[in-house]
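Case 297 in the screening queue. Each case pairs one protein sequence with one candidate compound; here the compound is heme C. For every case the pipeline is the same: read the inputs, emit a complex structure as tokens, and attach any notable structural observations.

Predict complex for case 297.
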Amino acid sequence: MADMPTDFWSGWIATLTIVSFIGLAWFVFSIYFSDDGEPEATDPPVWDEDLHEGSNPAPMWWFWLILALMVFSVIYMMLYPGLGSYAGALKWSQGGRLIDSFADYESEFGGIRKLVAEGQLNTLREDASLVTSAERIFDRNCAACHGYDAAGQAANFPDLTDADWQWGGTPEQIEQSIRGGRKAAMVGWAAVLGDKGVVQMADYVKKLGRGGADGHPAQSQYNQFCIACHGADGGGNAVLGAPNLIDDVWLYGNDDAALRHTIANGRTGEMPAFGERLDDTQIRLLVMLLSRDANGP
Ligand code: HEC
Ligand code: HEC
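Case 297 output:
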């Protein structure tokens, strides 16, 4: 029974369908064209003194309507599946439609996927339609945080259009940021530095790379606590996501209040991972879009 309908059952279903169709047709025709002539006003049965069979016949347009529907049904069942397992002259099926549209998808994008996977980033970037696709993917997945122009949003989401990369700007590093996400972890230093220490450290950070840092009262503490991540010169460390502190690009701002807040409380920015949500082609298009001037593989 598992592979029902077998040919036997399919035959039964087809026969039943056809027989009931013919029966229905006969019934309709017999109502309109029974040959027992015009009913006599006195033919029995008679109800209510003068009401009798045929005294108020069904209008002819009903007949034409029913006939048209029947012709439609016959044509429909010849073209589409409906009679048992007969596939219909058009060989239509829901599964077939899926297979067709998948084949369309493959023939339309199969070549592009290969091109995107194997092409040089610089070459891909010259293809305006690929850039448009990449921008569309960005708008849908990234713009909520990074903004539609990818220029970041106030003190929370980094600008992706500048040359300053917290986690590195090579195509591989950008791909890693997108695929695996990033979790920045800078703890707060309020307890270690104290209020005054925080104020001094903020001042030190401002002066880093601009002269005036040497001999600054916070210098030794910087060398003690901050150097491991941000480097002696404040250049940062892409592996840890520790930003460059001397390039005048600020994720969280460089006014006194922002700097003190960062130093006292720490920051833990998080970029969600997209490795599961986007496929390889989409991720590569984004890398192409964001790595702008890099000569990627
Ligand atoms: C464990 C490594 C680590 C240490 C130690 C560390 N930081 Fe950071 N720092 C980071 C990371 C990572 C970020 C980025 C946080 C983010 O993206 O949310 C950061 C961000 C900052 C920022 C914000 C930069 C911007 O662009 O807005 C400042 C300022 C800063 N650190 C200063 C300091 C100072 C001063 C110290 C020493 C008291 C210090 N950090 C110690 C890892 C560290
Ligand atoms: C929920 C908000 C959010 C979404 C959505 C988001 N990001 Fe991010 N992204 C962040 C934050 C926050 C950071 C900074 C993390 C940190 O502080 O280290 C970041 C960092 C990055 C970085 C590293 C920047 C650097 O300077 O190294 C890249 C690249 C990036 N995002 C690309 C993307 C792309 C591409 C998408 C879309 C597929 C995306 N992001 C979607 C919040 C988001």
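Case 297 observations:
- Residues 184-186, 189, 201, 205, 225-226, 228-230, 240-243, 245, 250-252, 259, 262-263, 267-269 surround heme C (ligand 1) (CB under 6 Å).
- The mean pLDDT is 85.
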